[in-house]
Amino acid sequence: MASGAEGKVAPPEQAQHVFGDALPLVGRYADLLADAGVERGLIGPREVPRLWERHLMNCAVIEELVPEGAQVVDIGSGAGLPGVVLGILRPDLSVTLLEPLLRRTVFLRECIEDLGLPNVEVRRGRAEEVHAHLRADIVTARAVAPLPRLAAWALPLLRKGGSLLALKGEQAESELAEARGDLSAQRPCVADVIRVGRGKVEPATTVVRVTVTSESDHSGASKPRRPSGGSRKKRGRKR
Ligand SMILES: C[S@@+](CC[C@H](N)C(=O)[O-])C[C@H]1O[C@@H](n2cnc3c(N)ncnc32)[C@H](O)[C@@H]1O
């Protein structure tokens, strides 16, 4: 994929601490986002100066919540956040980037090829339509949907003991408090809010972690309920 010098943004000093030996490859991904990603409207031009702190590093620090060798599904991957970053940092993971929009899946496939990531694959589809086909130890999602809807999409994909890691903003505690009833009605689970990356990223990344405590019944007996909360909001501009 073409990546000129134009959109390049130098990594901050702290990036070495976060990415270690993976820094050059993450730098290449940053260039792809800043060039082709912006050109094709997958990422806003105003995001470029804050690509490292607000996007790449903020996503990277969740890797400490992902067990060795896990199968990860990144719902609504968009331009690849956090899935591509996890795939680069952690070659031990198998990462599926799940994204419904063709333009975005084309970009993601090009990125994976360019970056040479054999442990990452792209799947075009909606999370609610892949319950019969995908299983995961970890499901990640950033800026995709309110918690009740996200849980309805993610929890059926998880193996017992697996977790949804939803990257959320400062309102995570109240969002979780409102959604608790909905979450356990979807599937038995425990949920908490964790802040990761203290000392590496400022502010620390806020994650709502929902861990399922039962086997799921994929025969259909425990079909996910339509969440009562998180009513459909106006979607943002499609990129
Ligand atoms: C705001 S973007 C966030 C992209 C990326 N996760 C990030 O943080 O930059 C939301 C993404 O979710 C995707 N999406 C929307 N509905 C979805 C669904 N039902 N299943 C999977 N992805 C979905 C959209 O196509 C879009 O790429």
UniProtKB/TrEMBL annotation:
Localization: Cytoplasm
EC number: 2.1.1.-
UniProt xrefs under InterPro entries: rRNA_ssu_MeTfrase_G, SAM-dependent_MTases_sf
List of residues binding S-adenosyl-L-methionine: G76, L81, A127, E128, R142
Keywords noted in UniProt: Cytoplasm, Methyltransferase, rRNA processing, S-adenosyl-L-methionine, Transferase
Pfam family, one: GidB
HAMAP family from the UniProt entry: 16SrRNA_methyltr_G
Protein name: Ribosomal RNA small subunit methyltransferase G
Lineage, highest ranks first: Bacteria, Bacillati, Actinomycetota, Actinomycetes, Streptosporangiales
